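Here is an idea for our session: we take a single protein and study its fold together. Start from the sequence, derive the backbone structure tokens from it, and show both lines together. Once you have written the record down, we can walk along the chain together:
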Amino acid sequence: MDQNKLTQLTLQTAKSNNAMKLVAFLKSAIENGHKLPARKNTLDVNKSLLAELAGFDRQALDEERGAKDTINILNWAIKHIGLDSGLVHESFVRQSDSPDLKALKKILDKQDREIHRLESLLLRAEAKNNSLVYEIKKLERTLSQKNEADAYISSGYKIVLFDDFEELS
């Protein structure tokens, strides 16, 4: 089914830059099993969030201001990809005067899992960042030593380099 959607998406005419960005975003969404973001309390697409995720201004998705090809692709996506019903359902559950407690528990559990996943990603990113900072400092020291050696060489000195474990004879 997803392959069919991808094929249909590639048949859409995308001439403007924003339409091409939207097609690229939609292709990624289809491949990853995502749907379009929905606005809270409605069954409409969240155009602001969609535009931000796709990498262009919200006005590009406005019926009167956007390019016709971009609007056509958006309408195709709404019809064929659909809205993230989980988000729509969540907004209705949250706004309800008598919310379903099981549904609220599911929403909270899902949010807890997402928080845990994001915290884990953050810890990995921080570790990677620390590793890269260390590597940069090491390379900066090496560069500084080489620049200093170049200065001595250009002044006429000869430089003899030894490995850390090499002994002088």
Notes: The radius of gyration is 27 Å.
